[in-house]
Amino acid sequence: MPLNRLIEQFSEQAARTDSPAELFALTEAAARELGFSRVALVHGLSFRCPRRGLIHLENFGEWSNVFMERRYYLDDPGLLAAQRITHGFDWSAIRQFLPLSPRQLAILGEAGRHGLRTGYTLPVGVLGEPHGCCSFATERAVLPSRLECLAASHIGAEAFREARRLHGFPGRAMKAPRLSRRKRDCLRYVAMGKTDAEIATILGLSASTVRSYMALLRRDFDVVSRAQLAAAALRLGVIDYDDAIPPF
Questions:
Q1: Closest CA relative to residue 153, chosen from 120, 107, 183
Q2: Is the dihedral of CA 45, 48, 50, 56 positive or negative?
């Protein structure tokens, strides 16, 4: 089937699916058309905190059991690489943007012995949701063509979008609170790990004023601790990592 027609047909059929199982069957079939025998749609968090609602659809067979039993998800180079870039990538290129430890090299080698010899992963990041990815793999020594990998990117993006729908994402609207300049200043310094006293000195405010701002910020974000406050602000995009960890 021509690749453009495969993508269009998949998109049309995926939008009509009523269950994750039905969607995954369609995704498996499309992956086979492209030359991939294995496919996974997952939230990375689903390995560490398996729970209902997180996306975890895959046909990696025995490798899945090994992956979980040996806690490979803590160091898996594919999952880590998917958090560092925004485009689809060939697994053989991972070491170009992620230094690999001996354990990570061993993970890749063992995956190959379980039928995941080469692969292609599409990162999926949605603000306020766990980071995800869609991976396509084969036991062949060489990936399908570049055009087939690009088609896999399109299909993976469509599949993850429909998986989000079927898993109830977004569960509820997450709206960032409107903050005054002073509140935003306090929030940035909280993310840097500054204490209330340090923030007061930096901003030229009294300690009691900063404490008041902190209480208001916790209420604004519906959290109870400084760590939760910084995490919620990052998740909602109110601050970014350059605020929390200033660049050199």
A1: 120
A2: positive
Whether the model clears a pTM of 0.85, i.e. scores above it, the answer is no
- The predicted model gives 94-118 an average pLDDT of 93
Going by pLDDT thresholds of 50, 70 and 90, the confidence category of residue 132 is: very high
Q: Whose CA is closest to 17, among 7, 26, 29?
A: 26
Region for residue 222 given its phi and psi (left: phi exceeds 0; alpha: psi -120 to 50; beta: otherwise)? left
State the DSSP string of the chain: --HHHHHHHHHHHHTT--SHHHHHHHHHHHHHHTT-SEEEEEETHHHHS--TTS-EEE--THHHHHHHHTTGGGT-HHHHHHTT-SS-EEGGGGGGTSPPPHHHHHHHHHHHHTT--EEEEEEE--TTS--EEEEEEESSSSPPPHHHHHHHHHHHHHHHHHHHHHTTSSSS---PPP--HHHHHHHHHHHTT--HHHHHHHHT--HHHHHHHHHHHHHHHT-SSHHHHHHHHHHTTSS-HHHHS---
d(C-alpha 243, C-alpha 204), whole Å: 20
C-alpha angle 176/179/184, rounded to 5°? 105
Distance between CA atoms of residues 50 and 37, nearest Å: 25
**AA identity, residue 70:** R
**So what's the pLDDT on residue 47?**
92
Is the predicted pLDDT of residue 143 greater than 90, yes or no? yes
